[in-house]
Design brief:
39% of the residues lie in helices and 15% in strands. The protein is α/β, with parallel strands linked by helices. It has an eight-stranded parallel beta barrel, surrounded by four helices.
Length: 270
């Protein structure tokens, strides 16, 4: 199994070349490419409109080259945007950011975008569908895969709603980034694999603790309630799906990597 990290854990506090070398020093295979860099504060963008197109071509090339020179694959471009907002200005900015990401992802060495469905609210799913119908033709024209990450507080909070979005849009370029922690308060660890199967092409690794009121919190992988043996076994059965670490601190990052590698080795050994 290929193991990587959301590079933002390192690019916030290190120049991108140094961040890439640090990531590679853990023996990781690849990264999710962020929109925030220590040396490029003037171009950095964040939720609710992460727009990689804010970066000029030479800065994007510097980012791409830094990761690739360190031997790291660039699996996906982060572009998390509130496309289902009930505020028309916020929603338009989010959709435009998605279009910008689609048009410029390849500058960063990416053919895939990791995104979300937007914050949950009345009428949110309908607004989400409208947004995807607007930018997915652009994704298809540019050969870009758009991966939606279902999450408990968002318009697409679970496996079945994600499947509904896929069916509504009907695009071969719309896929799933599965994070078991994000939907643990709705779906057990195995259900997404039964409902979404071949649509899952990326995965995140963090953990989740659901309290007595059903509210989740998100520690690093290995510190919560995710059933890692079941998750990893089902994920490996899908084939070559990269697993991307997030919600980890740099000072304890080695422990997270060691935990996941041990879990992977145990599943592979069985």
């Amino acid at each position: 199994m290929k193991l990587g990290v959301r590079a933002i854990i390192f690019t916030r506090t290190h120049p991108v070349e140094e961040a890439a070398r640090l990531i590679a020093s853990y023996g990781l295979d690849g990264v999710a490419v962020p929109t925030i860099y220590q040396e490029y504060p003037q171009y950095s963008t964040s939720h609710p409109a992460m727009d990689p197109s804010a970066y000029p071509a030479e800065a994007a090339e510097h980012v791409r080259r830094s990761f690739h020179d360190a031997g790291l694959a660039t699996w996906a471009m982060d572009s998390y945007n509130n496309i289902s907002s009930d505020d028309p200005e916020v929603r338009r900015a989010a959709i435009d950011a998605m279009k910008g990401a689609i048009e410029t992802a390849r500058r960063f060495g990416c053919d895939t975008i990791a995104t979300e469905s937007g914050r949950r609210g009345v009428g949110g799913f309908e607004r989400c569908v409208e947004a995807f119908r607007e930018f997915m033709p652009l994704a298809e024209a540019n050969g870009i895969t758009v991966c939606v990450e279902p999450s408990y507080a968002q318009t697409v909070p679970n496996s079945w709603t994600m499947r509904g979005l896929i069916e509504e849009i009907g695009s071969p370029n719309l896929k799933v980034l599965l994070d078991p922690a994000n939907i643990l308060c709705y779906d057990d660890t195995a259900r997404p694999f039964e409902v979404l199967r071949e649509h899952i092409v990326l995965a995140h690794a963090k953990d989740c603790i659901v309290d007595e009121k059903g509210m989740p919190s998100f520690p690093s992988a290995g510190q919560g309630q995710v059933n890692w043996p079941v998750f990893l076994e089902r994920l490996m059965a899908l084939g070559d799906v990269p697993l991307i670490i997030e919600y980890a601190k740099e000072e304890t990052f080695a422990e997270v990597v060691d935990f996941l590698r041990a879990q992977i080795a145990e599943v592979e050994g069985n």
